[in-house]
Design goal:
CATH architecture of the largest domain: Orthogonal Bundle
Number of strands: 4
Strand order of the largest sheet: 2-1-4-3
Radius of gyration: 40 Å
Number of domains: 2
Helix content: over 70%
Number of helices: 6
Oligomer: single chain
Strand content: 5-15%
CATH class of the largest domain: Mainly Alpha
């Protein structure tokens, strides 16, 4: 019959392994990948919309400047019709040419903004079309992960019930020592296989083996490993 201390250690080890498996589920990586894809999609959408807002501002500003330049040119052309002096006419013509050049530059800027706006509009339409598939993929991955976690949680609940019974079978002093050792080592209780402690995997001397066997004989089959301090079940 297996000693309750070893059964307790085996149940705790199983629980440790299940918790580790829960934290490193492949389904978790898949869910996170789906989440990351959705986050990248959302960031891309926001960047595109922000750029569209910036371009709208550029286009509005260009249109406002063009309107002001057209009014300035009309005023200069009206003045040109009323002047007689050649030098004054030449100065007005030079001013009109500068306005036209500035107006041409603004037209180029507005055209470039309009072209970029049209391109981003098309890209945004394509990106928005991906939303449903990305959200469905995330929801599906999350559901798969939740199911896998629920399976492990069910096993952990069953082990917790078993642990409660096993802990009741171990005397309080040994249980307190076991719990302290569990804070330091994953394995707090181990068997003595020949002369080797299965906890630290070190060989005990013949004298040490005799000591732990004598100790176990007087304390319900339990002794302390002189090498690592773990509980040895003899």
């Amino acid at each position: 019959m297996t000693h309750p201390m070893l059964e307790l250690q085996a149940a705790d080890t199983m629980a440790d392994q299940l918790r580790h498996r829960r934290e490193h589920l492949g389904e978790r990586e898949q869910m996170q990948a789906a989440r990351n894809a959705l986050v990248r999609w959302d960031q891309s959408r926001k960047v595109m919309r922000q750029r569209l807002d910036e371009l709208s501002g550029v286009i509005e500003e260009c249109e406002s400047k063009s309107h002001d330049l057209d009014a300035q040119r009309d005023r200069l052309q009206a003045q040109l019709k009323t002047v007689i002096a050649p030098r004054e006419a030449e100065a007005l013509q030079s001013e009109i040419a500068t306005v036209n050049e500035t107006r041409s530059g603004i037209d180029d800027e507005e055209l470039a903004a309009l072209e970029e706006q049209a391109r981003i509009d098309d890209e945004l339409t394509e990106v928005l079309g991906q939303e449903e598939a990305l959200r469905e993929a995330f929801i599906a991955a999350d559901e798969v992960l939740s199911a896998a976690e629920a399976d492990i949680d069910g096993e952990l609940e069953r082990i917790a019930e078993r642990l409660e019974g096993l802990r009741a079978e171990v005397d309080k002093a040994s249980l307190r020592r076991y719990d302290r050792l569990r804070e330091q080592h994953v394995v707090a209780a181990a068997t003595l296989a020949g002369s080797r402690c299965e906890g630290c995997h070190l060989d005990l001397s013949a004298a040490e083996v005799d000591v732990v066997k004598d100790e176990a004989a007087s304390s319900g089959g339990l002794a302390d490993c002189p090498q690592c301090g773990r509980i040895l079940v003899i």
